[in-house]
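# step 3/5: fold
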Amino acid sequence: MMQDGTFDSLGHHGETTTGRGDAYARDCPTRQLLDRIGDKWSVLILLLLGDRELRFGQLKQRIGGISQKMLSQTLRALERDGLVTRHAIATVPVSVSYRVTPLGSDLLVALQLMIDWAETRMPEVVEAQSRYDARIASH
């Protein structure tokens, strides 16, 4: 049984992989992709890989608070979606690095705008949160 908002895979529910989706439609697979690219870990990984190819350990070290398991899962999902490529080099132990694909690079433009907005508007958001919290506390 699937949970509301989840899908077996992209392309199901009458959608074609070549047509444009409708993210407002309840069963549109576009929502699954939006979940991925809206996830904080995916955004941070893609932004870091936009600068250069990085090894797993470098990503883990740079992204504070991400577990090894979450990093592995997110990288696998990004690779499956065609946003990241994985390169294994036959060394002992095997050295694995990741980089953004051309499809992922297209997405980076939008993500960078979002990050820039969030970083520069955070004081205004904190102020709005304080006003809201004060209003709720006074009721």
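# step 4/5: annotate
The two ends are 42 Å apart (CA to CA).
# step 5/5: archive (pending)
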